[in-house]
Design goal:
- The structure is a single chain.
- The N terminus is likely disordered.
- By secondary structure, the chain is mainly β.
- It has a single domain, classed as Lipoprotein localisation LolA/LolB/LppX (outer membrane lipoprotein receptor (LolB), chain A, Clam).
- β5 and β6 form a beta hairpin.
- It contains 3 helices and 12 strands; from the N terminus they run αββββββααββββββ.
- Strands 7-8-9-10-11-1-2-3-4-5-6-12 form a 12-stranded mixed sheet.
């Protein structure tokens, strides 16, 4: 389940999305226009307190293809919930202290301290706090893309796994697609739709209680 194998979701990512075709124009240093766009993205998410959106996830790698969908719920600070459409009950939850992974039918739920989370959802986590893309991404570049832009860079802290993160954003600074390319060749893409900002949410919406008979194990996120 790495993003979900695992912004953010960008988790991201939260302002969210229907992608455009990538322009053939090469990526370039930010310049004044690119810098202004990056600041616009920062400001857009820094003014949000919560967000709900539908997502689709497509994963290709390790000799397999997978497509999933569901609902993403975010709340500042540091809370997110990915509720999968199938099987019902499959979740990835970040409750502010721990990340929880559970699939119905499993005898165990996995718990990981949030500060130790090595998961491809991590790029979405910057959307849950004070967003500064320049501090979150190395090699930041902006490329015109259709009616919007594509922002690329390498997420700090998971460089050993992620070769490139791409965020497709509107001119208003809202993210509507993200793509993670891993060093092993795996690719995960998220597209977001039906985004509703500043929805009423409670901390309890991000709780996880293991079903009866399901034990909790501490460890790394499952692949």
């Amino acid at each position: 389940m790495r993003l979900a194998r695992t912004l953010l979701l960008g988790a991201v990512g939260c302002g969210l999305f229907a992608g455009q075709l990538v322009s053939q124009e090469p990526a370039k240093s930010l310049g004044a226009d690119g810098d202004a766009l990056v600041r616009r993205v920062d400001e857009h998410y820094n003014h949000l307190t919560s967000l709900r959106a539908r997502y689709t996830e497509n994963y290709s790698g390790m000799g397999m293809q997978r497509a999933e969908e569901g609902t993403l719920l975010l709340k500042k600070p540091g809370r997110m919930r990915w509720s999968y459409a199938a099987p019902v009950g499959k979740v990835f939850v970040l409750d502010g202290k721990f990340a929880w992974f559970y699939t119905p039918g499993d005898t165990q739920a996995t718990r990981v301290p949030a500060k130790e989370l090595d998961d491809l959802r991590s790029p979405l986590r910057f959307l849950l706090g004070h967003t500064q893309l320049k501090k979150e991404l190395d090699g930041l570049a902006v490329t015109p893309d259709g009616t919007g832009f594509r922002i690329t860079g390498v997420p700090k802290g998971i460089e050993q796994r992620v070769k490139l993160l791409s965020l497709w954003v509107t001119t208003a600074g809202a993210i509507d697609r993200m793509k993670l390319e891993e060093v092993d060749g795996a690719v995960t893409e998220f597209a977001f739709s039906g985004m509703v900002e500043n929805v009423p949410v409670k901390d309890t919406d991000f709780g996880f209680v293991p079903p009866p008979g399901v034990s909790v194990v501490n460890g790394l996120p499952p692949i």
